Amino acid sequence: MSKNPWDRSPLEVLRAGPEFDLASFDPSSTPGWSDDKDDGTERMAEQGARLADLQEMLFAEGRSGGTRSVLLVLQGMDTAGKGGIVRHVVGMVDPQGVDHASFGKPTKEELAHHYLWRIRKALPAPGRLGVFDRSHYEDVLVVRVENLVPPDVWGGRYDEINDFEAELVASGTSVVKVALMVSPDEQRARLRERLERPDKHWKYNPADLDVRAKWPAYREAYQAVLDRTSTEIAPWYVVPADRKWYARMAVTELLVDAFERLGLRWPLADFDVDAEMARLDAS
Ligand code: ATP
Question: Where in the sequence is the domain holding 168, given as residue range(s)?
Answer without folding.
Answer: 10-282
